[in-house]
Request: fold
Amino acid sequence: MSSTDARSAPSRHDELPAALPSMWRALKRGYDAEPRLLVIAFALSLLAALPDALMALWLMLLADGLLDGAPTLVAFAAGGLAVSAALTWVLRVVSDRTQRRFRDRVTIALESHVATLQASVATVEHHERPDYLDRLAVLRDQVFVLDHMYMSLFTTCGWLLRLVVTIGLLASVHPALALLAPLALPTVLASTWRPAVERAAEEAGAQAQRLARHLFDVATTAPPGKEVRVAGIQSRLAHERRAAWQRWYGPVSAARWGTAAWHTVGWAVFGVAFVGAVTFVAFGTDASPGAVLLVLAAGSRLSAYIGAAVGEIGFLRGIWMDGSKRLAWLEDYAAAKTEHADLSAPPALRQGIELQGVTFTYPGAEQPALRDVNLVLPAGSVVALVGENGAGKTTLVKILCKMYEPDAGRILVDGVDLRRLKAEDWRTRLAGAFQDFFRFEFRARETVGLGDVPRLDDGAAVESAVARAGADDVVDGLTKGLETQLGPNWPQGVEVSFGQWQKLSLARGFMRDAPLLLALDEPTAALDAETEHALFERYAGAVRGGHGDAPNGRVTLLISHRFSTVRMADLIVVVDGARVVECGSHEALMAAQGQYAELYGIQAAAYR
Reply:
């Protein structure tokens, strides 16, 4: 089976897990977060249901007492009505306050859990596969209402208890009245089926909805504002957003209308049954007037109780069951990425890193980004990757950083398969800067210090990283130096140029003193060639000179299109068409008169 076939083949992570086990896991997570509050909130929900459900009984006793001239029964029934009315209000208020407190606390736990899961997944595949992106987009929307699922469960149990009491009261008048319960099943079935159909339609159009949101952001946010206006594409963006929204909303609206029709049929069945029950008791039995009043009161409440229970069940079916399945999928997906990782990263490299037959294809792509790559990165070496855009250089770096797992082949770190190294531990031994760096709009000290969180507040370490990255001029130009808030959208924040952001990103990559792998993926593309050359000449000299900067056998991996920088590397790897086509020192590759020599000659001629 080819790598593409292997990636397209279904796996256990492509499907959502079963509903009931997922719901149980979600419920258990809420219990783990707030066990006492959960039990109290559940008990209060049940207690609050009883006084309300007994109102029909008190009305029957009151009517019979009045008609029979029984003042004791009248007083008892009136007292029951008063107590039920008071307890209904008191217990409802206490229950709502308790549930709100529980919900506030469990909300933080759930949102933190989802955020931690997404951020801690060993690879980044879930951020790039369209089907996973759609799944995560729905989960992100649902995480803010997942806390309601516990309240919904408690409330559903309360409505079900009301139903049981009410059906018991109806059956006490005549056993046949208990048939009202099964005749209400069509409403329940329609309501539990309805959210699943609508959610399936929403998920099928999730990609179009994401596009509509993206186009809205493009049209309304600051970063693309200048280009949008220069290009004059405001109307085009609005038109395409409307079209994308229609592609999502059309099928969703059709699904909603279809399910609403079936829902109406279900309620029509129950309505006819209720009218028949009242008629039967009034004219087909010798029940007392109080019993007829009980059927009217209990029957009308039964309708309300079924409606409320069905609504909560629909919420559970549409949000909790669906949301808990997505949450369980994310938990399983994150766990699966670490199930084979049982070893810690070595403290130092003795042999180096070796790639054996590594092949990798991006999700949804037809051609591999890397194909049968065999490469040895010796310990203590500076390695440069060169090649045309799209050749696979950045992909190679990402795989070495465990952002992806190879489809075939393996990567050995001092003879140990990289898959067996714990991702979190391996990444503590990595450092680097990337061409698609992120602009952390914090204080400059934090923006740099994030490269080694344990030393975030170590001023000497931050200043050393700034110096190694050649970013002293950036810091010196800031109003408050390292204490300057970056980003003009924040109070007293300042804007810095793209090149300055890149220098700060490079400084962040130099925060860790003793990484095993330092990956520099075009980290100085915004700088001039002379500055880049001086920076890497100083850095490579420190690595080779035994100045204590790389005593642990560090491998430095550099991607650059400037051959004046590349030629300083110990080993130059030429990547073309997803394969390694040449490998050697600058002198050896120039002597070979191959692809590297041709590329070097073209660039040298351009400079001359």
Q: What stands out?
A: Strands lie at 352-360, 370-378, 382-386, 408-413, 416-417, 430-433, 517-521, 555-559, 571-576, 579-584. The two ends are 50 Å apart (CA to CA).
